[in-house]
Design goal:
Elements: H1 14-36, H2 45-68, H3 70-80, H4 84-90
Length: about 90
């Protein structure tokens, strides 16, 4: 499941929540790029703290999704969309 902005479920305006979720996903993707490039700790302290909180929230979310079987369902759904040829190319 994709990253999202936690703690704003009370937002009445769906557009605002959707925009925050989209920005959070983009920030998470950038964190991944920065981490892979070895640049993550050249960021300002506030951003580093956000990354730590986000990593913790991600780990908790993934653990919850695994326990609920959601990750396996998403994986099954994705695999079911592939043709036999696509599966063969991917070695599945």
């Amino acid at each position: 499941m994709p990253c999202r902005t936690d703690g704003y479920e009370h937002c009445e305006e769906n557009t605002m929540k959707r925009d925050m979720d989209q920005a959070t996903r983009a920030a998470c993707d950038m964190r991944t790029v920065l981490r892979a490039s070895g640049l993550e700790y050249r960021l300002c302290l506030e951003t580093i703290e956000w990354i730590k909180r986000h990593d913790k929230a991600d780990a908790e979310r993934i653990e919850r999704e695994v326990a609920e079987g959601k990750r396996e369902q998403v994986k099954r759904d994705a695999l079911n969309k592939l043709s036999m040829e696509e599966r063969r190319v991917l070695g599945l």
